[in-house]
Amino acid sequence: MRGLAEFIMRGRWQALGIAVLGSGSLLFGWISAAAIALVTLRKGTASGGWLVLWAFLPAAVITAMTGDTGSAMLLLGTYGLAVVLRESVNLSLTVMASVPLAMLSGLALTLLNGVFLEDLVATFNQALAQLKEDLQQEGSQELVFNALAVPQVAALLATGSAVIALLSLLLGRYWQAALYNPGGFGEEFRALRLPKGAVVAMAGLAAILWWLGPDWMVWSAAAVLPLTMVGFALVHAYAAHAGKGVSWLTLMYVLWIVLDPVKWVWVGCVVIDAFVDFRARWAGPTGKGSDGV
After folding, report:
1. 116-131: pLDDT as tens digits
2. Last residue of a domain, one of 159, 182, 205
3. I want to staple 248 with a disulfide (CB 3.0 to 4.6 A). Which of 2, 12, 244, 272 is the partner?
4. Residue 20 CB coordination number (10 Å)
């Protein structure tokens, strides 16, 4: 991946080629977004914006052909987060910006992509009904499947887009550090923390959304996205402190992916960390733990 980053930074047209080729693919759009993030962080918002304008063209073609605005939203979302990081030099603030990004993406999907969402929901619910019928024919147990509504699908897609945009930004930041400040990204990421007030507000918002019912419950994932990212930073910080290797980190990621309760334990640990600062305790009495970003 370092070789790709070096190629992107070799010149304006190399960066443009990667940005355009990636954005023209539903599978590799994240590479285009990461390239835009790298150029924005290193060379400024104008250079990154120039790439976005050109990369947006194949993304617009995809939207016209399929009705899916995912590629275009990913490019704009990643560029927006890169601008926040470039101007603020604050990774914590940038991670928190993923929440309004998800909300705006959901609003844009609802207003601009209503027909696509309705067709997607109809197809999914039809497949769900067929699955329920097939399973009931095979057994006597009564099965209950909740049909999805358009607002729920919009929330899921918007949250997914915000997640990929944030990961693409972090990849671009990693490339920047690998080229110009080796090891800097690891230190920066492991030190990632959020203000106490922000942690409590996001955890409280997620709890309220969950309590409001299925139509709002899906937005709770967007509300805790920054807390989840800090949770990963906390795990990496502990691994560095305790000398844990790649195998242990891989196990933590697998547990997070396959076990839903682990995701909420993750968030709970971040809320506790906001008040007790685990990393400072791990560092010992010298106080050389996490200073934040």
Report:
1. 788 888 887 787 777 7
2. 182
3. 244
4. 18
